[in-house]
Structure of DUF636 domain protein:
Amino acid sequence: MTEQKIIKGSCLCRKIRYQITGARVLGLICHCNNCRKSSGSAFLASSYYVKSQVRILEGGEMIRVFEDERTASGNVLNRSFCSNCGSSLFLARSVNGIPGDAVFVSSGTMDLDGEEWVPTKEVWCKDRYSWLHPFHNTDTKSTM
């Protein structure tokens, strides 16, 4: 039996710590306006996992959730962040009020070597800043 990969991560103040077990589904770059605002950057970089792969090790009581209802896709996105330092940690979506099984983990919060995280898909490319070129070898979508 092969050992599953374990990734640990935290918010900036390290009051919230988490662990991910197993392989990601994909590495996502989102160029939509809400993800830009949430990340404070030109795009949001995250990894898609199944919720059961992500476990909060410490500081679960520090997590706050913003229900982002004004999205271009029409889906409600639950954006989780640290109530102390403000780090954006997780993104989960619900369709018609029903939570999904996916969780997107902000790549910058993962304790990884910079070469370990590579995007595989870009979405909302129609909103990509003109000075930002497509990422190498990614599947690109105009919207979702």
About this structure: The two ends are 36 Å apart (CA to CA). The chain has one domain: 6-123. DSSP finds one helix and twelve strands in the chain. Helices lie at 33-39.
